[in-house]
Amino acid sequence: MNKTVSVLGSTGSIGTQALEVCEKHGLGVTALAAHSSVELLEQQARKFKPEYVGIFNEEKYTELKEKLSDTNIKIVCGMEGLCEIAALPQTDIVLNSVVGMVGLLPTLTAIDAGKDIALANKETLVAGGELVMSEIAKKGVKLYPVDSEHSAIFQCLQGNKRSQLSKVILTASGGPFFGKSYEELRNVTKEQALNHPNWDMGNKITIDSASLMNKGLEFIEAKWLFDLEPDQIEIVVHRQSVVHSAVEYDDYSVIAQLGVPDMKIPIQYALLYPDRVSCPTGRLSLTEYGKLTFEKPDIETFKCLGAAIKAIKLGGAYPCLVNSANEEAVRYFLNDKIKFIEIGEIVSSVLDKFPRSSVNSYEDVMKADSEARKYVRDYIADLK
Ligand code: MG
Q1: Phi and psi dihedrals of 251, rounded to 5?
Q2: Would 255 disulfide with which of 156, 216, 361, 373, CB 3.0-4.6 Å?
Q3: Tens digits of per-residue pLDDT, 188-203?
Q4: What are the structural domain ranges in the chain?
Q5: pLDDT per residue over 63-110, tens digit each?
Q6: In terms of CATH, what superfamily is 4-141?
Q7: Which stretches of the chain are assigned E, i.e. beta strand?
Q8: Given this model, what pLDDT does residue 383 score?
Q9: Rounded to the nearest whole angstrom, what is the distance from the C-alpha of residue 242 to the centroid of ligand 1?
Q10: Would you say residue 1 has pLDDT above 70?
Q11: What is the mean pLDDT of the chain?
Q12: CA angle at 380 for the pair 327 and 307, rounded to the nearest 5°
C-alpha cells in the first residue's frame, strides 16, 4: 500500500487505532495532529516519523516543540496548524477523527485542497452537511465514512444501484441505559453513563451513546452522506452491536454488514477502500452470539434522539444548534455541573427557543454554534 495519510485527532480512540492500521498495512503517515496530549503525540511522532505534527491547544506548542527538537519534524499549532496539515500536497487521504465542531474547518480545507477524506468527525456533517456535501461534489473528492454504521451502509451500497435503495436501517446499541424509564434516568451517575456495554470510545461520544444523541447525530450524518430523506432512515436498537447497519432495496431485500464491534474494520475499509485485507480484530462467530435482537428506540425517554431527528426534519441551522447545545451540555455534565437528564432537556429546548435560519456558509455555521453555546450557558446559569 503506498497511500499516504494525515491523521487529525491521532491520540484519540479512532486515531490510535488508525495508526495501528497504517502500521500493519504499511501506509505512509504524513502528518499527525492532536488536541493537547503532548506525550502520546511525541511517542507517535517518533514511531511514525511524519513530516508535520500539529497541536490544537496553542499553550502546548512550546512543550511539544522542545520534546521533538532533535527531529526534523515541522511543528504547527492551533486551527491554522490543523488546516495546514489538512491541505498538505504530499497527503492522499485525511483521516479526520477530531472531536467536536473543531473538525469542520479542517474538513472543508482538505476538500478544498482536493484531498480524499476518511471521516470520523460527526460534527462535520451534522453542523455543515449541506455545505460540506456541495463542496465535495464541486471538488470531486471521495468521502469515506469511518463510523461503523455509516461504513456498514457504504459497504451495503457496493455493487447495487443507489436509485433502487428504499431505506436505510441504522442500528443502535441502546447504550448503558436502554430500557430505563425517564424517572429512572433522573439519578444516573457520570460513572454509569461512561460505562458503555460494547464499544470503547472517548468520553464525549460515550455520553452521547448513553443519551442516544450519538444515534441522532448519526441519523443526520446518514441523511447527508447518502442523500436520504429523513423518512428513509429507520433506527433499530440492536444490543449486540454485530449488525452494524443495513440497506433495504426496492425488492425488499435487506443487505446488512456484520462483524465484531471493533472500529479497526471500518477504519481499515475507509483507508484501504476497496481492498478487504486481514484485520487485527477477531473473527465474528455467530454461534457464539447465538441470538441477535432488534427493538424500537424510545425517543420519548431519550429526548436527545427525538430532538436530533426533529432538527434535521426542520432543517436550516437546527441540526447545528442541537449539536452545539449538546456539546456544551455534555461538557457541563462531565464537569458535574448538571444531571444526565438535563442534557436532553437542554438539547430539545433549543428547537423551541430558536427561530428558523439558514446555513449557507462556514460563518453561518459558526454563528449558530456560538448562539447555541451561549444559550446553554445562560440556561445553566438560570438553574442556579
Ligand atoms: Mg457509530
Answers
A1: -85, 10
A2: 156
A3: 999 999 987 777 678 8
A4: 4-141, 150-383
A5: 999 999 999 999 999 999 999 999 999 999 999 999 888 999 999 999
A6: NAD(P)-binding Rossmann-like Domain (3.40.50.720)
A7: 4-8, 28-34, 52-55, 74-77, 93-96, 116-119, 143-145, 165-172, 233-237, 243-249, 254-258
A8: 87
A9: 12
A10: no
A11: 96
A12: 50
pLDDT tens digit sequence for 28-64 = 999 999 999 999 999 999 999 999 999 999 999 999 9
Cell numbers at 367, concatenated: 454563528
- What distance in angstroms lies between residue 245's CA and the mean position of ligand 1's atoms? 10
What's the 384 CA to ligand 1 centre distance in angstroms?
Answer: 35
What kind of fold does domain 150-383 have according to CATH? Rna Polymerase Sigma Factor; Chain: A (1.10.1740)
pLDDT value at position 198? 75
* Ligand 1 mean position, distance from CA 218 (Å): 7
Residue 240 alpha carbon to ligand 1 centre in Å: 13
Compute, in angstroms, the gap from residue 69 CA to the centroid of ligand 1: 38
Expressed in angstroms and rounded, the spacing between residue 241 Cα and the centre of ligand 1 is 10
Q: Cell numbers 455534555 correspond to what residue? A: 330
The alpha carbon of 101 and the centre of ligand 1 are apart by a number of angstroms equal to 17
Tell me the CA–centroid distance for residue 251 and ligand 1, in Å: 27
Contact residues for 163 (Cβ-Cβ < 8 A; gap 6+) = none
334 grid coordinates: 462531565
Please tell me the distance between residue 170's alpha carbon and the centre of ligand 1 in angstroms. Answer: 9
Residue 321: pLDDT above 80?
yes
Q: What percent of the chain has pLDDT over 70?
A: 99
Determine the distance separating the centroid of ligand 1 and the alpha carbon of 103, expressed in angstroms. Answer: 17
Q: Which of 35, 113, 32 is nearest to 73 (CA)?
A: 32
Cβ pair 368, 351 in contact under 8 A: no
Report how far ligand 1's centroid is from the alpha carbon of 148 (Å).
5
Q: How far is the CA of 74 from the centre of ligand 1 (A)?
A: 33
Residue-wise pLDDT for 135-162, tens only, equals: 999 999 999 999 999 999 999 999 999 9
Q: How far, in Å, is the centroid of ligand 1 from the Cα of 223?
A: 14
CA of 165 to the centre of ligand 1 (A): 21
Is the pTM higher than 0.85? The answer reads: yes
Residue 130 pLDDT exceeds 80: yes
Length reported for the chain: 384
